[in-house]
Amino acid sequence: MNYYDILFYLFAIITLASAWFVVTTRNVIYSAFFLLFTFFGVAGIYVLLAADFIAVVQIMVYVGGILILLLFGVMLTNKITNVDIKSGTANLLSASLLTGVLMGALVSVMIFTDWKVEPAEIQTTTIKTLGTMLLTDYVLFFELLGILLLIALIGAASIARREKE
Amino acid sequence: MLQVGLTHFLVVSAILFSLGVYGIVTRKNAVMVLMGIELVLNAANINFVAFSRFSGFGLGGQMTALFVIVLAAAEAAIALAIVLNIYKQFTNVNIDEIDHLKD
């Protein structure tokens, strides 16, 4: 085992263990904080896949943006003073069976499929290539996503701020 | 153990996806359901980046992962705005109690 493998198993264990706690802990706040470790673990996996820019974006957008939004969502929709920030669960048995079967099927498909592997050449940094692609091949998606993000943020602000008549 | 390759990343992503689905179907709190959705989106992203690294098609997969992250941010903002409105209306966010369309 070389360092790459050890790091991979480390990040995989961090990701999967904290994801397990996210979906099983009853306290919503704990779940949100375990989600932090999941996002960091996924960012580490991106680094191991030679996707440095995606890893940085993952940390900035998910940890810096989405996680904070989720925490605000928890704080604003639960009566913190009542210590009643537990989340109930439903259909535990049937859900465990279903997702267990789903997980078995997915994992066996991933393992037993004969993937055609052709390692790409590893670049020291992907930022230059990604930037060029964004403004040439993917420029339409880039502009559309910019507009979509603007619409989504305006819409979110106007939905959340609507006053009762 | 084997040399870490494409399969390892795909297996991690499959397990993460299943955990996300488990979170979505078992939780009652709407914010927790959103967390499950984020796990599922992350699993899909790992697949995109892994295939981009191991398939020799260039960086298209990483670009798609970038777009998925943008969409996840937009989705989280809209969904939390809706959840806040539901909370104003019903004073809780348990998705099994918000069934007024049935009446």
Topology:
The complex is a heterodimer of chains A (165) and B (103).
Chain A: H1 3-24, H2 28-48, H3 52-77, H4 92-112, H5 127-135, H6 139-160
Helix pairs in contact in A: 1-2, 2-3
Chain B: H1 6-26, H2 30-54, H3 60-90
* CATH superfamily label of the largest domain in chain A: NADH-ubiquinone/plastoquinone oxidoreductase chain 6, subunit NuoJ
User: What's the CATH first level of the largest domain in chain A?
Assistant: Mainly Alpha
How many separate helices of chain B?
3
Helix content percent band of chain A: over 70%
Mean pLDDT of chain B: 88
Describe the structure.
The complex is a heterodimer of chains A (165) and B (103). With 165 residues, chain A is mainly α. Chain A folds into two domains: 1-108, NADH-ubiquinone/plastoquinone oxidoreductase chain 6, subunit NuoJ (Four Helix Bundle (Hemerythrin (Met), subunit A)), CATH 1.20.120.1200; 124-165. Chain A has helices spanning 3-24, 28-48, 52-77, 92-112, 127-135, 139-160. In chain A, 26% of the residues are buried. Chain B has one domain (6-102): Helix Hairpins (Orthogonal Bundle). In chain B, helix 1 (6-26) runs antiparallel to helix 2 (30-54) and helix 2 (30-54) runs antiparallel to helix 3 (60-90). Chain B starts with 5 loop residues before the first helix and ends in a 13-residue tail after the last helix. The interface between A and B is large, with 82 and 76 residues.
Structural key phrases:
heterodimer; A: about 160 residues; mainly alpha; Four Helix Bundle (Hemerythrin (Met), subunit A); 2 domains; 6 helices; about 75% helix; B: about 100 residues; Helix Hairpins; 3 helices; elongated
In short:
The complex is a heterodimer of chains A (165) and B (103). Chain A is built from 6 helices and no strands.
